[in-house]
Specification:
2 helices, 388 residues, mainly beta, 19 strands, 4% helix, 17-stranded antiparallel sheet
């Protein structure tokens, strides 16, 4: 279950779409909440922070490291996985050239009322008219969360240190291919002490090394707020234990998103996500609803298995130059294999949200979403950027 969430200009938009651990992933994504397209899965009732933005340059024709924009903000949160607390993050966004996507450097940290804490650094660079893209993340977290084992929540404590990096090379105008690597040290135990449940005990103390293949198709008109085009993100990851219970495993996922403009200020966005993992995959690297797919409506530690599929649709509406709103709905399933996905039923959620554009130069939104699921639960999400 993708507890972890990798890279930051997409550490946030992709922090949920890479192999991490669900509980730690929430902490790490919160640490880097202010990356350019984020996915801080923090559920909060209020946002007390104000806009604290200093635009380094307002000229649209300026490019290079010195012509970017700073973002700094505290973000209060209340999360069903790690409780309530405060995340503080900062990011610097810029473009190397007119044809390249937005690059950034980010730093952040958090602490919640249940003891969860974490901090991290992240960077994403795009240069040479998007010929090259490099994402890297270094983070550490201590997370307390409930893992649902057989439908019953079990209180866990998980520590982790992570380094992940991905290098992509453009082979055509819209296609990039490359490799990814990850080094993860993690320990898992019961929050109150005792013996871990089956399915978790073998993953209690692990040091993992991962190598994988990454492929992307990107025809979007913009990476921060797309109004047209498609984005397909595929990864096949192999893993082995460097320390701990000896085993090899593999997992793969694909996120396929499309964007259609209905007018100058209205956009429809949709994402279809699939994930599959081998039976030896550690529980925290399996496929989760609310993990790699950034699905809103359920804790990322509630529905997870070795296979998953989900579909989300969102209507995005701009009001003036800085404000906006969204309405969204989605459905997803998890199971031991694709032929058994319906065994656990279809899980659905829908909701609405508000947006505020943080800088004039970059269309990076501060987002607050309220979701309602089919189990009569209400969750509030606060993050930076779009979910997909």
């Amino acid at each position: 279950m993708s507890f972890f969430v990798p890279h930051c200009y997409r550490l946030c938009d992709r922090l949920d779409k890479k192999p991490y651990t669900q509980g730690l992933g929430v902490a790490l994504s919160a640490c880097l909440a202010l990356c350019s397209t984020g996915s801080l899965k923090a559920e909060s009732a209020l946002v007390s922070s104000t806009e604290m933005i200093a635009d380094a340059s307002e000229r649209e024709d300026d490019y290079g490291l010195r012509t970017g924009s700073f973002m700094v903000a505290p973000i209060p949160f209340k999360n069903p996985t790690i409780g309530a607390g405060l995340a503080l993050g900062g990011a610097y966004l810029f473009q190397f050239d007119a044809e390249s996507d937005t690059s950034h450097f980010a730093i952040g940290g958090l602490r919640s009322d249940n003891g969860t804490n974490g901090y991290g650094l992240s960077g994403s660079l795009s240069w040479g008219a998007n010929t090259w893209k490099l994402d890297a993340t270094l983070a550490q977290a201590e997370a307390y969360y409930d893992l649902y084992v057989g439908g019953v929540p079990v209180g866990l404590k998980q520590d982790g240190s992570l380094f992940t990096a991905t290098l992509l090379r453009g082979v055509s105008e819209n296609v990039l291919v490359g490799g990814t690597l990850r080094y993860l040290e993690t320990t898992v135990g019961l929050e109150s002490g005792g013996i871990l449940p089956p399915g978790v005990v073998q993953d209690a103390n692990l040091t993992l090394g991962n190598l994988g293949f990454v492929g992307q198709y990107d025809s979007r008109d913009d990476t921060l707020y797309p109004r047209s085009g498609y984005f397909v993100d595929f990864e096949l990851l192999g893993g082995t234990t460097l320390e701990g219970s000896a085993r090899d495993y593999a997992r793969s996922f694909a996120n396929m998103a499309g964007y259609w403009s209905l007018g100058e200020k209205t956009v429809v966005a949709s994402q279809l996500s699939t994930c599959a993992a081998t039976s030896d995959t550690p529980f925290f690297d399996q496929c989760a609803l609310g993990g790699i797919d950034a699905f809103r409506g359920f804790s990322a530690t509630q529905y997870y298995d070795t296979s998953s599929v989900s579909l989300q649709v969102e209507l995005r509406q701009k009001f003036g130059s800085r404000f906006g709103a969204v309405a969204f709905a989605g459905a997803g399933m998890t199971g031991p294999d694709f032929s058994s996905l319906d065994a656990g039923g279809v899980h659905t959620a829908a909701g609405f949200g508000m947006r505020f554009q943080l800088t004039k130069k970059f269309e990076t939104d501060f987002s607050v979403d309220v979701s309602f699921n089919d189990e009569d639960e209400q969750l509030v999400y606060i993050y930076v950027g779009q979910r997909f």
